[in-house]
Amino acid sequence: MTTTDDPSLEPPDLGTPYLAVRTRGRVLHVRIDRPDRRNAFTQDMYRGLKRAATWADEQPELDAVCITGTDRWFGAGGDMAGENTDPIGLAAEWDHTEQFPFRHIERCSKLWIARINGLAHAGGLVLALHCDLSIASDQARFRAPELLRGIPDPYLTARLADTIGLARARTLLYTATEIDAAEAAAIGLVGRTVPHDQLDDAVEEAIAAIARTGPAARAAVKRDLNNRLPSPDVRLFLDALRNPEMIEGMTAFLERRPPDWPR
């Protein structure tokens, strides 16, 4: 769904019904809209976010992209059922990681703001980590459950330790512990936590502050900051796709049973 408050800046078609998109002022607003599945990401949705980053990068009038979720969910990670609405288009992409948006978000010259309205697990957490600013509701919750499914996520390992420190990253990754918004702010996982009813005001304050800064200068600062971050080793994920452990982990999750790990 696409709407616009500014007819001079028509929002893009992101190719999925699960991403609601509109432009307001100098900001592209994207809302993850699949609450019946806890906003779990289909491959179409991931590719839609990549399209948003590519489109935003080409718009000189745009300052930022604001990404948020619907109801109690920001994003619960990838949809392990494999649902998508464009199987032919996805099949044409030989690289299984190509539709992931995370590298494109970091390369985008516009600032990405994560308006974290609720649960941010797995891919939802990865998405927040790759945004430039993160503002969380006090109702938000965070978790990295990938190892429970036998999935080594290179985007998490490339960003989590740099964000919260190695010891805390190890704890979240190896134990899959869920933390609340207060702890997330305390350890630096998010930039700011506010009461849920103040979330919109806090995001608007951030947007207004961004608008006062020089577009070229802030793009240069974003590029310089992100150039200092390690590149994700996507082979980590590609190799796991061929591993019986990941197959068992995902199957067990879908069947709602403990995994029987192959040894």
Report on this structure.
The protein is built from 11 helices and 11 strands. Strand 2 and strand 3 form a beta hairpin. The strands form 2 sheets. A 7-stranded mixed sheet has the order 1-2-3-4-6-8-11, with helices on both faces. Strands 5-7-9-10 form a 4-stranded mixed sheet. The chain has helices at 43-57, 87-91, 102-107, 123-130, 154-164, 166-175, 181-186, 199-211, 215-227, 235-241, 244-254; strands at 2-4, 19-24, 27-32, 64-68, 73-75, 111-116, 119-121, 133-137, 141-143, 179-180, 192-194. It has a single domain, classed as 2-enoyl-CoA Hydratase, Chain A, domain 1 (Alpha-Beta Complex). The radius of gyration is 18 Å and the shape is globular. By secondary structure, the chain is of the alpha/beta class. 41% of the residues are buried.
- Termini separation comes to 46 Å
Q: Secondary-structure element order, as H and E?
A: EEEHEEHHEEHEEHHEHEHHHH
What is the SS-derived class? alpha/beta
Number of domains: 1
Beta fraction: 15-25%
- Over the alpha carbons, how many angstroms does the gyration radius reach? 18 Å
Number of strands: 11
Low-confidence residue ranges: none
Mean pLDDT: 91
Q: How many DSSP helices?
A: 11
CATH class: Alpha Beta
In CATH, the architecture is Alpha-Beta Complex
Strand order of the largest sheet: 1-2-3-4-6-8-11
Question: What name does CATH use for the topology?
Answer: 2-enoyl-CoA Hydratase, Chain A, domain 1
Considering DSSP H and I runs of 4 or more, what fraction of the residues is helical?
25-40%
